[in-house]
Amino acid sequence: MADNSSPRSYGNLIEQLEEAADGAHAYEQIIGLAHNTEVNIRMDLDALIGKPAGPGGVPAAVPGLKSLWNTARASRVTANHNFAEACLAARIYTRVCIHSLAPVLGESWNNRWVTAGFNLGSLSILTNPLVFLQQLRAYYADNPTHETPDLQGVACTATACEASAKTLTDAETACNTAESAASTAYTNFKNGISAGRARLSGLREELTQLIDDDDDRWYSFGFDKPSDPTSPDVPGTLTVTAGTPGTAVLSPAWLPGARATSYRVTAVLKSDGTEVADIIVKECQFTFALNTVAAGTLVDVSITSRNAGGESAPCNVVEIAVP
User: Fold this and answer.
1) In the CATH hierarchy, which fold is given to the domain comprising 229-323?
2) How far apart are CA 166 and CA 160, in angstroms?
3) How many angstroms separate the Cα of 129 from the Cα of each of 40, 109, 122, 141, 208?
4) Amino acid 307: pLDDT
5) CB within 8 A of 204, min separation 6: which ones?
6) pLDDT given for residue 78 in this prediction
7) Distance (Å, rounded) from C-alpha 283 to C-alpha 143?
């Protein structure tokens, strides 16, 4: 009996939802679909892919959950970069302020530096130097004669320390906001995927009550006929070998699954489950490159068996770092 399980990958899920909606459009009235109608299927589909704007921009375009997740990811990367740059600029500025106070407090750390906030026995600067900027601001405010309004074009003053601290906190706030937004967008996207898969499962169950197992209309909904040949077994033990450092090449190999005519190789990011590879192959070993993934990134690789009757569950998942 065919498997007809809901696709796991985003692309395949969208493709089958499209087919299911077309099938419902053609046959829902004839066979009496009541719950998983074209309208309901397209509602779940549109939630994932969005809707284009109407004529003249009315109604306005509605972004899908996938698009919102992509945008949120990009914004998170930008915000993290901006925060890192702000931290670097703040560390450089803090170092200039230390230099400005050296004639007063000493060229190296001593107890006098405690009054300026360096109370850990060192003039080393933290990756995020916000606490030092705050303490230096207070020190300059208490000791205005120690301010240096122009040290090679840099103002070492209470006001300038406050401005630098604000720039840093603004960048950190933006970073935290972007992280939260990305987390929410990813959760919404995964929920949309779950809703789409549930819709297909519900449609499959409803069709079993309305048409026979050997009815060719199953194909119109994107399903195999339940009477089609049995789906293949899960592939045997998977191993994955990393290529030469810097190549991003991975070489998975596995044992055949009974009745399989092809295999699906998938790879997702360990960090958030983002799919970075979805490849159909004929043989039980394969080499591919994840050129869009940074070296050292952890990915999960798995294999499923495929034939005309359906697709198996995935085999064991292998975690590996991209070389």
Assistant:
1) Immunoglobulin-like (2.60.40)
2) 10
3) 53, 17, 14, 18, 64
4) 87
5) 4, 223
6) 97
7) 75
Backbone angles phi, psi at 242, to 5 degrees: -85, 145
Residues 6+ apart with CB under 8 A from 17: 41, 44, 45, 48, 196, 199, 200, 222
The residue extents of the domains of the chain are 1-228, 229-323
Place of tokens 């899960």: 234
Phi, psi of 181 (to 5 degrees): -65, -40
Q: Convert the pLDDT of each residue in 109-135 to its tens digit.
A: 999 999 999 998 999 999 999 999 999
Instruction: Report the distance separating Cα 61 and Cα 63, nearest Å.
Output: 6
User: How confident is the prediction for the chain on average, in pLDDT?
Assistant: 94
**List of residues 6+ apart from 29 with CB closer than 8 A:** none
Q: Is the pLDDT of residue 1 over 60?
A: no
The identity of residue 16, as a single letter, is Q
Q: Please tell me the predicted confidence (pLDDT) of residue 8.
A: 82
